[in-house]
Amino acid sequence: MRALPLRIKLTALTLALLSVGLVFIGVASVSMLHGYLIERVDLQVDQVMHKAHLKIDKFDPKLNLMAEDVVVQLVRPDGTRESMVKELRDVDAQPPPGLPPAMGENMTVHAVQGRGEWRAKLMPAGESQLLVAVDLREVSDITRQLVIIELLGGSVILAVLAVVGVATLRRSMRSLHEIERTAEAIAAGDLGRRVPDSDPRTEVGRLSMAFNSMLAQIESAFQARSESEKAARRSEDRMRRFVADASHELRTPLTSIRGFAEFARQNPDADSAAMLKRIEEAAARMGLLVDDLLLLARVDQHRPLRKSPVDMLALAADAVHDGRILAPERDIRLDVVGGAALIVSGDEVRLRQVVGNLMSNALVHTPEATPVTVRVGLTGERVFLEVADKGPGLTPEQAERVFERFYRADSARSRRTGEDRGSGLGLAIVDALVEAHGGTVGVSSRVGSGTTFRVELPLALE
Fold it and tell me: pLDDT tens digits for 228-267?
């Protein structure tokens, strides 16, 4: 058997309780009215009984009664009855009432024939008995009319309340239907669906607010999970690419070492010193590559840095000084913006490596006569350092990927100068180290106008 809807259950329960209440009130009111009418009849019986006794005492057994529903009879010892009313009435033609089983009490008795009922009282009167009875037909009619009125009125009340209750419940539970439809839509994949707002003072309104809050948290959790899965896939892709690139980069110096070793073995008369030098150079390149890979691995593991106050102006000045020594033919300048102390909290060795990599990148990837400017200053509560050149610049696609590991702007796996090629990790190391220090690094470039790398680090607050 299918479960009934909640609104039907509530309506049925309400109507059932109301019916019980109406029945109780109806029974009580009918009982009270019937009891009141019986008391009035008993009072009438007692009054007529008193008058009849007075008549008997005066030897005048005939009464003048205006009431049409009262009989007064003398019951002889032989069981015959004699009416004490002077005029014959319609009530006298009805089947007479039965005799009460007890003397001196007002009792309800049935007629000797038929279904009539009487309220009767029997009292001794000499050798005979005096019977006074009132026909209860009028009492029954009044009681029956009251029952009919209560049944009709109760039915009308129940019908009206049923209609009003169903309409009210349907309107009140409309929000529950909205919640049901929203849940079905969410189950179908629409996580952005929400329940319309209702009055927060009502139970349904508070339920809607709680439901919407829960949906927002679920949507946030699903979005976070989706973003996490995407990040994991991107990380996995980068890891695969990183492993493939690292294998390729390590294979090159290893191939050189193997080739020189085999050449020296196959040619004993060859210049061993020259062969060993070439092997040593290849091993050194491989060692630098391994060192860069280890550095990136440590940064990826979020190992804590040895932080201390670092003067970025001093690092910029040292980088400019070293650049002028390495490339004396270039115009390398230092530009200081403002006069504030440019102190950051960080690892001086790693920050020096950041500035050195940016300077080396500008010197290696631009023509020999290209000027380079190192600019440091303060913007808000962040220290910035820029390395700008007037070289050939980068395309938007190259600028977007310039910080990727093993990426080279010319899209080649090896440099144009053969063995004197880098690993493609210099700018990736810059990006990782700056991020580890809580900073940001970016690049702005236009083809033919040069390139500017900008590093921003939080200012060390005393």
Answer: 888 888 778 767 766 776 676 677 678 878 887 887 788 8
Token representation of residue 206: 């508070």
Contact predicate 150/26, CB 8 Å: yes
Side chain identity, residue 46 = D
413 band by pLDDT with thresholds 50, 70 and 90? very low
Residues 387, 359 contacting (CB under 8 angstroms): yes
Paired residues of 311 in beta bridges: 343
Distance from C-alpha of 66 to C-alpha of 89, rounded to nearest angstrom: 10
CB of 45 within 8 A of CB of 119? yes
Both tokens of residue 277? 């030098």
Residue 183 backbone dihedrals phi, psi, to 5 degrees: -60, -40
Closest CA to 131 of 165, 105, 166: 105
Contacts of residue 419, defined as CB under 8 A and 6 or more positions apart, other chains included, come to 256, 281, 282, 285
Expressed in angstroms, the distance from the first to the final Cα of the chain is 76
Q: From the CA atom positions of the chain, what is the Rg in Å? A: 57
The pTM of the full predicted model, rounded to 2 decimals, is: 0.48
Q: Which residues of 36-63 are buried (b: 16+ CB within 10 A; e: fewer)?
A: ebbeebbebbeebbebbeebbeeeebeb
Query: Quick check: 424 and 408 in contact, CB under 8 A?
Result: yes
Q: Is residue 303 helix, strand or coil?
A: coil
As a whole number of angstroms, the distance between CA 199 and CA 215 comes to 19
Instruction: Report d(CA 381, CA 371) in Å as an integer.
Output: 30
Is residue 442 predicted with pLDDT exceeding 90?
yes
As a whole number of angstroms, the longest Cα–Cα distance in the chain is 178
The percentage of residues in the chain with a pLDDT greater than 70, rounded to a whole number, is: 90
SS3 (DSSP) at 252: helix
Structure token pair of residue 54? 């007075």
Q: All domains of the chain, ordered by start, with CATH?
A: 6-161 (3.30.450), 305-458 (3.30.565.10)
Contacting residues for 414 by C-beta, under 8 A, at least 6 apart: 252, 421
Q: Edge-to-edge strands of the sheet including 107-110?
A: 81-83, 70-75, 128-135, 117-125, 107-110
Q: Specify the DSSP element, H or E, that contains 151.
A: helix 137-172
Instruction: Return the pLDDT at 462.
Output: 62
pLDDT-based confidence at residue 9 (cuts at 50, 70, 90): confident
